[in-house]
Amino acid sequence: MLPWLICAALAAIVLVLCVRLYLLQKSLDDIAAQLGERLSSDTNNPIFLPTRNPHARRLAAALNVQLKELRRQRQQYESGDRELREAVTNVSHDLRTPLTAICGYLELLDKGGKTPEQARYLALIAGRTEAMRQL
After folding, report:
1. What are the pLDDT digits (tens) for 123-133?
2. pTM, entire model
């Protein structure tokens, strides 16, 4: 009779371990699914697990910390990118305005009489102005 009790106890232990292993696997599958969802969309929702397994909860908490840091870095990148685009736009505008005035003055100077040396200097200025306009 004792061997049957030992076999039954071992079978119960194996069954409990199998159930715990299945629940752990399900928790890890949930983590993987939620992580994929969080990475593909811009959401602030943390990974949530309805399990009491401390290892799975620790993993989810660590992933939530990393997701929060990733969101912070993404926002920092987007902010820097936006500031760079605004700076380029401002510089472009700041260059275009005086270049337009310089081109106008060059046209006025080109209409009047000039010496060959003045014509050479005007051509040089016009070439450099056009190069800046291309930039």
Report:
1. 888 888 888 88
2. 0.57
